[in-house]
Amino acid sequence: MEMTDLANAVIAGDRRALARAITRVESARADHRAEAVDLVAQARAAGRQALRIGLSGTPGVGKSTFIEAFGMMLVAQGLRVAVLAVDPSSARSGGSILGDKTRMERLSRDPAAFIRPSPSQAQMGGVARRTREAVALCEAAGFDVVLVETVGVGQSETVVAEICDLFILLLAPAGGDELQGVKRGIMEMADLILVNKADGDLKPAAQRTRADYAGALHLLRRRPQDPEGFPKALCVSAIEDSGLTEAWADMQRLAGWRKANGHWQSRRAHQARHWFGEEVRQGLLSVLDREPAKGSMAALGARVEAGDLSPEAAATQMLALLGRA
Amino acid sequence: MEMTDLANAVIAGDRRALARAITRVESARADHRAEAVDLVAQARAAGRQALRIGLSGTPGVGKSTFIEAFGMMLVAQGLRVAVLAVDPSSARSGGSILGDKTRMERLSRDPAAFIRPSPSQAQMGGVARRTREAVALCEAAGFDVVLVETVGVGQSETVVAEICDLFILLLAPAGGDELQGVKRGIMEMADLILVNKADGDLKPAAQRTRADYAGALHLLRRRPQDPEGFPKALCVSAIEDSGLTEAWADMQRLAGWRKANGHWQSRRAHQARHWFGEEVRQGLLSVLDREPAKGSMAALGARVEAGDLSPEAAATQMLALLGRA
């Protein structure tokens, strides 16, 4: 299928075409890459925008259950929902967070929803580009909400925050001493902290955890792009379906406020500029992954390891070989 | 002064020459850079090796007081000690950790010691290279121990660990709930955890903190490059001069074990290869900081921000301009 036909099918809302288009942007083949750039350009030209929500949470907080319940609630309101996963660790574990679709059984079967697991063998640079392009394809396909989920591993939250309009941190109830387990940087990125499992025996612990995080958020400086009261911590229960409506209302309120105040558009503009820089840097460095540079790097690296050559002298030689002395 | 003369003066142990040589490796000027590479190559050719000790600790743990007491103990044993700082945040704060030499009054006046603060306006990439080269210069100048200190900011610990033979984490006494405040990655890099201020009222708290960290270290897998019992947590008091002899004995034991088992040399070999790769990557990317690429990046970046051009299309144009389509 020609890229134009594929792009048109995506824009017409053909789910199989969307799946095929995402497979194309995931491909590492050079000819596929050129096609992917073409495809994404045509998708962007449709000019559609979804609400992009980044969702981070470590394993065990109930991410799949939350996405199932939250997604079904949005679908019940007539919204179309796409779910993408960013999982840089899948290369190691061999599996992906969303690989087990049975954990989101209802949502994965709903015609208004589209769920796409993380590709295996992905590196962070590749994951960032693939996710960004998959988001653009989902937007072109007319989805109203694109959820991008990530586990709290390495740089993945930063990547997701640089792709999304809102960033949500999902937590499980815990003792107060676990507060510090959340990296400060992630707290600072979060627009909304949702304490999941606020049901049954865990409800009091969830409420305490919420209060702890609300206190911690209060200590962080309010950001100019936020209305009064944000960032905010709420209790939710995915299995009891409670708090989800409130959380969604807050997300809409925040998004609306940012749109009205110009922060929405300027955030997207800054993100685009950031990714432009990343693409250029990745492109410059990619020469090192191809022959003959790859072989020279290995040969010079071996001499540096053996102590025959200093790191600086070897680097000078390598840059000269690349015509960049 | 010619670089050869300067290198010879450094190797002869001339402290003013060493200070001037470090200033040269810190310079951002292109002609100075070529001279610095020459200088470091000559310094390395002297074939001297010091024990390189990385020391990390957040503000308030008593780093300066510890370095003063620990350094004076080494000097009293007839050893020559150099202290270098890695402080990527100094660009922002305008000051450097070791800027206030009065906090190490005795050590800074001792002829067997050499203290060099972090340069201002340093970026992480530049800091890493400058520190690596300054360490090589100190080794050439005949110092037996080179202490590289860093505050726990961003990537600086990883940089220091990639430069040093041993990595020490300095902590203050604290409640057990603060254990998680230390990033897991830093715990995993530490060969020795020293709980400072184990004196007076704080002694019981220091002992508890030591036990907490000893327990946490026990949970981490023992590394093949370590003898039985390492990594280890100890109490020290810089103001009472207690525990320092024991800490130094452990450092020597660990270093001796690694040397006898070949881990020492293989670690230095891996570090050299790592820095070779970093130098090449920095060199490739440095084109973006110079005209005409810098101007093109700004112009294309502005169009991406304005929405005239997608990040991918702009990156393709930029890479074409760089002859790397």
UniProtKB/TrEMBL annotation, chains A, B:
EC number from the UniProt entry: 3.6.5.-
Main enzyme class: hydrolase
Alphabetized UniProt keyword annotations: Hydrolase
GO MF, any single term: GTPase activity
Alphabetical list of NCBIfam families matching this protein: lao, PRK09435.1
Name this polypeptide is given: Methylmalonyl Co-A mutase-associated GTPase MeaB
Pfam families per record: MeaB (PF03308)
Gene: meaB
Organism: Pseudotabrizicola algicola
Keyword Hydrolase part of the UniProt annotation: yes
GO CC terms in record: cytoplasm
Keyword Glycoprotein: no
Assigned protein family: Belongs to the SIMIBI class G3E GTPase family. ArgK/MeaB subfamily.
